[in-house]
Amino acid sequence: MLGLKSLFPPADPWPLKFRYHDFGVRCYNTLRCQVIYNNYCFTRSFLYEPSGPPIRTDWKDSWSAGHGIGNEFASPVEADWISLDGTRHQARIDLAELFKDRLVRHNVSKDDIPEGWLAAWRVDPLGVDILMEVNDRTINVYMKALIATKEPQIPGNPRSTGRRDLILVWTHTY
Length: 174
Fold this sequence. Notes:
Layout: H1 4-7, E1 21-28, E2 30-37, E3 40-41, E4 67-70, E5 77-83, E6 88-93, H2 95-98, H3 115-123, E7 128-135, E8 138-144, E9 147-148, E10 162-163, E11 166-173
């Protein structure tokens, strides 16, 4: 039976917490790369061929997750890759543990967020993108979330009232 506390959202949604997440992966500078999460292989094109370097230096600017996961974290992410030096690596990244607090990582202060947007978040928390990069011997896990802002982020553009910063949450070099 649900308690009364679970029927009512918190009065103040700060710090922001997310309800669901989407997931995406990029492999760079590997001889072979396979990443599986939620019973889905995110790296079919790199299973048996080198991934190469990023095509552009600003590739992270437009990076977003392409696979909807939902409210719960699936089993840990399984990464199996060969770095440029020919060494095989395997890693299990437990996103449920990494994001157990469900905090949204962002660079916007509470004072810069519109009150109405915060009130809406209190009732229906949005989702976030969790992004994983395998690059040679390093795995990076990032978060991206669209956070509304009171002021435009691009001067003169009234449609730029939001930030979607890429925040590094975890990294490990193997």
